[in-house]
Prior knowledge:
Blueprint: E1 21-22, E2 30-31, E3 55-58, H1 60-63, H2 72-75, E4 81-85, E5 91-95, E6 109-113, E7 116-117, E8 137-142, H3 146-149, E9 155-160, E10 169-178, E11 183-191, E12 194-203, E13 212-225, E14 229-243, H4 250-255, E15 276-291, E16 296-312, E17 317-337, E18 340-363, E19 366-391, E20 395-414, E21 419-439, E22 443-454, H5 458-461, E23 475-487, E24 491-503, E25 506-510, E26 516-520, E27 523-538, E28 545-561, E29 564-565, E30 568-569, E31 581-591, E32 595-604, E33 620-633, E34 637-650, E35 673-685
Parallel strand pairs: 6-9
Antiparallel strand pairs: 1-2, 3-8, 4-5, 6-7, 8-9, 10-11, 10-35, 11-12, 12-13, 13-14, 14-15, 15-16, 16-17, 17-18, 18-19, 19-20, 20-21, 21-22, 22-23, 23-24, 24-27, 25-26, 27-28, 28-31, 29-30, 31-32, 32-33, 33-34, 34-35
Amino acid sequence: MRLHSGRFPFFSVVLTLISNLGIAQSDSVKINQLDEVTINAFESKSNRLTTTATVGIVGRRSFERFAPTTFTNAVSTVAGVKMEERSPGSYRFSVRGSMIRSPFGVRNVKFYWNGIPFTDAGGNTPLNSLDFNAVQSMEIIKGPGSSLYGAGTGGVVLLTSRTDNALQNRVEQSVAAGKYGFQSRNTTIQVGDLSVQYGHSEQDGYRKQSAMTRDAIRFTSTSKMGTKGTLSLLGMYSDLYYQTPGGINLAQYEKDPTLARQATATVPGSESQHAAIYTKFALLGGNYALQLSNNWTQSTALYLTTNDFANPFISNYEKRDEQGIGGRNIWKNQGNWGEVKTNWSSGFEWQYGRSAQRNYDNKGGVPDKQQTVEDVRTTNVTLFSQLEMVFLTDLTVTAGLSYNTFKYKYERFVTLPYSKEQRSFNGIVVPRIAINKVIAKSWALNASYSDGYSPPTLQEVRPSAGGFRKDLNAEKGVNTEIGIRKFTKHFSGELSLYQFGLKETIVRRTDESGSEYFINAGKTNQKGLEWTLSYDLISDPKLPLALRIWTAGTYTKYTFKDYKQADADLNGNLIPGIPQFAETAGLDVLFKYGLSAFVTYQHATSFYLNDANTVKNTPYNQFIARVSWKKGWGQHLYSELSASAEKVNAGIYSLGYDLNAFGNRYYNSAPKNNLWAGVKLGWEWGKK
């Protein structure tokens, strides 16, 4: 037996490698190496050692470590990244605290799916419309992606859906069930380079007024067009319904954590108002790549979206009809300047969106008297260019910038008088510079500087109660970062230290009815330390078992600067919603004959729930275990059985708090224990 021992820092410092854990269907057991991963961030096509970006990878194998219910647990294993689910279907996605003022799921993080913009012109990302099996991998770029991805201060996420093998045909069916009424069914049909996937999931929910149902279909296709072109198509349609229980206060939580938001003397509760989200979202996109010459390539992505959205809420019934169109074009040149390898990328991205928004009185879940009729049109354009140079094979320097324009046009038809306004954010140039030096083939030092720029989103300039907040300013920030990496055959580790200063920080407020609105609130100073570490204790493929331990975590200090709330000076206060210490650790055990076991531990310290730093939550310890058995039955048939369990120790446990909530309704309680089980059957043929 080949054993590898090592010493671990007390902190458990440094990066999770869950994405590359694999089991061969044969008798051998193998753990893939980290340096086999290709990093696509900033059009680099590098590896984990040589990339100039700080990137977290969540792959298909990562998702398989947890129950097939939501992305949240797998995503939250990446240092500095947190995904929340306030109730089933209500996602929030945060990179390094970008969720401080999240109005609708994702804020300040741009998403691309197979190279196609998935974040729309108004800054909204319909992440909750995706079925769990629709995406095979996520590449999470931490910090501003200004040089190639334009406006944004939190980061960039590159989603990928693709066929595993164009020479393989496959039909696969899976079903799963769990506590609180959870059920899911998933069907995949793959014929060559065409893949169609349908997923249905539903659950009753832990709390009252927290049921969810989603049906989603996704197709992808990649085909050669002539001798030099490749056309990739992506399409999806999702019909999502989820109830929104709303926040409760501490006394209500202690009495019964399953309560939905309760009525007051002046405002009804969530149940009587049938508070919920209804959204029917469709996307059709394509990406055409053409080899222009030995050195030049061009890729062009175009997309169309439509969204039929309704939200019966406590104080109103909001209806939105939205359409979007956009695209992205990149020219790339790869060559040499003497002994220096160069990779130059330039192009543009444009997006347009129209949102027809109407508000009504909510009469028990039915629209009643009309309150508002408003239209918002959003246009943004980004021009970008970046040059990457590799000196002597071990020194990589990247420099780039983008030029950004952004405009909102607003019209109010009801209530009269008619109003027409606009707000523009034009001519913003944001640069990024980064360097990475490989030392002794297994170490690397890296540093970066990047500006961030983020206009207010559509849901901020036009909050749920209506109106146009043209007084909101764009956020601007500067991120500086240094890091060290170490990758060997059995060990991988990464340590990053960063400081991000943000001006004109947009923060969320709620009024007595629970309606959101947003204000600019001075500056923030966000300092953080991130670590990830992975070590193969047993990795010989000739042995009956492979064993890996890993950990990832963060230590942060995020504070306000020059920030007052009424007469209170909050300068130096900790930013709410961000734990100062969070860590995830795991043990992965892979056996012969397709058996595997995964144990994951997650911990976070308490944090403040309001800007005044007067209310805290409690720390939590979460334990998750999953076992699975994969088996091939002859040449074509294969199967998988799996079971998962979750246990949480915490005084108060929530998968998403409502920060600065009116009436101290901070708490969206979540279950402290859960169980799931699933089975998968598949038939494959035509594989070489």
